[in-house]
Design brief:
The complex is a heterodimer of chains A (276) and B (320).
Chain A lengths: L2 H25 L4 H5 L2 H9 L17 E4 L5 H10 L39 H14 L6 E6 L6 H12 L5 E7 L8 H4 L5 H7 L3 E6 L3 H8 L10 E6 L22 H15 L1
Parallel strand pairs in A: 1-2, 2-3, 3-5, 4-5
Chain B lengths: L5 H15 L3 E5 L5 H9 L4 E3 L4 H13 L3 E7 H7 L1 H10 L5 E5 L17 H6 L5 E4 L3 H13 L4 E5 L18 E5 L4 E5 L3 H14 L4 E6 L1 E3 L3 H8 L5 E8 L4 H11 L6 E6 L10 H7 L4 H9 L8 H6 L1
Parallel strand pairs in B: 1-2, 1-3, 3-4, 4-6, 5-6, 8-9, 8-11, 11-12
Antiparallel strand pairs in B: 5-10, 7-9
Classes of the chains: A alpha/beta (276), B alpha/beta (320).
């Protein structure tokens, strides 16, 4: 892809990470690391021109649907929705505040948000239902669903994967934020998910395994999805939980925790350095 | 007498509605019914079988609904409700989506199938969910009317259908919009029953009358939201209330009735009849299981007689 565009998107990703950190530090809560691992994927979808949407008309019928199934990563989606104009930026400052419009987990009454999530294992089936309905009605919008890898321990994911594979829902794209960590441990220590791509293949999905922090990789997998046929697509995006702040990366300890005091300042410094 | 099952009555009516509204989708967890064969054949694009996968049934229904479809889900009752309960909580109740869950097999109606298939907790579980409307059918006329009521609902609905063919007690002109229907008034006791137990209640009231006890009967078919004003009016000046349900007592219909009474400062003795906190591996038909848990007509009649109801007129009591 064009280097200039990649540089712009990387700059945007840095900006979104800083906003996520500010939101969560100010609130004293929020899933920072789960949000950091999927920043590039969401920036590519919303700022990179992959998805069709209209901030002035959030319920525009022809919009592509984005379902954040791992609803604990709400800060990344809220920061991006504010950035593209679904609601004012100042709403981010009242994350988890009494006068705010949203809290830790995703809620469906926020402009640009499709579903309430936070409980895992819902989003893929909802996406499959949307994809099925779109096909019934000859609509050509796409449905993108972002799943956590720990979320793939939920049995409901595999019920829905089987359904979507059977119905060859080629308008359904699942992206797995494969940061290797569930809540308390690495997924492979907890309950083994690998070989994850072959599992999805066996359920009738086309698979792509990418570096989820590389815009070139993301666009190679998602850039030309509208003409797809015959099967749903799963993109396994290898990512780093807590990406961007060294002491939060790959550490189960930081799940669902916002840094405080000195650590918050260190995190801000690291993100600032990364941007320069 | 109409000998159609509640399920067939419901689906026959839904078929008529779905022929006119092509946005209606019926999502089944691999459950059939004679009346469904017609639906599947004539309205193939409006029928979707997800396999024995109730969680996916609810999430797919949610996605369809968020895309403008009017969705009904269908499975045996414990699986339609409890297997996917948390998904229903988030997707239907929290998001307040107008999806109708159709459960078949109220109470012991899957009698010989054993406790896995008995539905004895679903009222408790489903009435805990905000936004949910719960409709419990006593006969096939009512079941057919529930297809219309759920079609018009703005939020989620749960329709309880009996598996067995029960006698018809309502005619086509009955108005099912109120939430409860009074069959008889009784100054001594009013039996509030739901579902198949309405039939037992009517028999019990006749038996009590032979013992000079005037017993009223109310069919409380909308278990959530309960129309408290109408229910209290129907109870009227009755001296006592008995509740009768083929469901666990904990949190069931009887509990809901007591909540209505307490919340409205109505101090009146209440006796609840239902299943007492245990499962039954018992065979030989529904009536046998009902006898074991003292929900059959004779047992309930005897237990009401043991309450020591005074049938003396009030003025005699005062002068005594």
């Amino acid at each position: 892809m064009n280097r200039k565009i990649a540089a712009e998107l990387e700059k945007k990703a840095g900006h979104i990470r800083r906003q996520i950190l500010d939101m969560c530090v100010e609130a004293g809560t929020g899933h920072v690391t789960s949000s950091f691992s999927c920043v590039e994927v969401l920036v590519a979808l919303y700022h990179g021109g992959i998805m069709r949407f209209n901030p002035a008309d959030p319920k525009w019928e022809e919009r592509d649907r984005f379902i954040l199934s791992k609803g604990q990563a709400s800060p990344v989606l809220y920061a991006i929705l504010a950035d593209v104009g679904f609601f004012p930026q100042k709403a981010l400052g009242s994350f988890c505040k009494a006068d705010g419009m949203f809290g830790v987990h995703l809620q469906c009454d926020v402009p640009g948000v499709e579903i309430t999530a936070g409980s895992l294992g819902h989003g893929l089936g909802i996406g499959a239902g949307m994809a099925y309905a779109a096909r019934m009605d000859n609509k050509n919008h796409m449905i993108f669903t972002l799943l956590g890898d720990g979320e793939c321990h939920e049995g409901s994911i595999w019920e829905s994967a089987m359904f979507a594979g059977h119905h060859q829902l080629s308008n359904l794209i699942a992206i797995i934020d494969r940061n290797q960590l569930c809540v308390t441990d690495f997924t492979e220590n907890c309950v083994r998910l690998n070989p994850l791509d072959r599992k999805w293949e066996a359920f009738g999905w086309q698979t792509a395994v990418i570096d989820g922090h590389s815009f070139a990789d993301i666009f190679s997998a998602l850039g030309e999805v509208r003409s797809r046929q015959d099967s749903p697509l799963v993109v396994i995006a290898n990512t780093v939980k807590g990406k961007g702040v060294s002491f939060m990366e790959n550490a189960a300890l930081w799940h669902g925790i916002a840094p405080k005091g000195e650590q918050a300042e260190m995190a801000k410094m690291e993100l600032k350095r990364g941007a320069s | 007498m109409n000998r159609i099952s509640q399920r067939d009555a419901f689906f026959d009516r839904l078929y008529e509605i779905a022929r006119k509204d092509r946005d209606i989708i019926l999502v089944s967890a691999d459950m059939g019914a004679p009346s469904l064969d017609k639906f599947r054949k004539d309205l193939a694009s409006q029928y979707l079988c997800v396999g024995i996968a109730e969680q996916n049934m609810i999430t797919v229904a949610t996605g369809l609904t968020l895309s403008g479809k009017k969705v009904y889900t269908y499975a045996i009752m414990p699986f339609a409700t409890l297997r996917c309960y948390e998904i229903t909580r988030v997707d239907l109740s929290i998001m307040n989506l107008p999806i109708t869950i159709i459960g078949v097999g109220a109470g012991f109606s899957y009698d010989d199938s054993g406790p896995t298939h008995h539905s004895t907790e679903d009222i408790t579980a489903m009435r805990a969910l905000p936004n949910m409307t719960i409709l419990n059918a006593a006969d096939s006329t009512m079941a057919a009317a529930f297809a219309d009521l759920s079609y018009q609902a703005a939020g989620p609905s749960y329709v309880r259908l009996d598996r067995q063919v029960l006698p018809t007690i309502y005619d086509q002109r009955t108005d099912f919009s109120g939430g409860s229907i009074q069959h008889k008034t009784g100054k001594d006791i009013t039996i509030i029953a739901t579902g198949n137990m309405v039939h037992n209640a009517l028999e019990i009231a006749n038996k009590l009358e032979e013992q000079s006890i005037q017993a009223g009967v109310i069919d409380l078919y909308r278990l959530k939201p309960i129309n408290a004003e109408l229910l209290l009016k129907q109870i009227g000046d009755s001296q006592r209330v008995a509740t009768l349900e083929e469901h666990f007592l904990d949190g069931g219909m009887g509990s809901a009735v007591i909540e209505v009474l307490v919340d409205n400062d109505v101090a009146i003795p209440v006796k609840r009849f239902g299943i007492r906190d245990r499962y039954y591996y018992a065979y030989g038909g529904r009536s046998n299981i009902q006898s074991l848990c003292r929900l059959d007509v004779n047992s309930v009649t005897q237990d009401i007689l043991r309450l020591g109801i005074s049938t003396e007129p009030e003025e005699l009591k005062i002068t005594r």
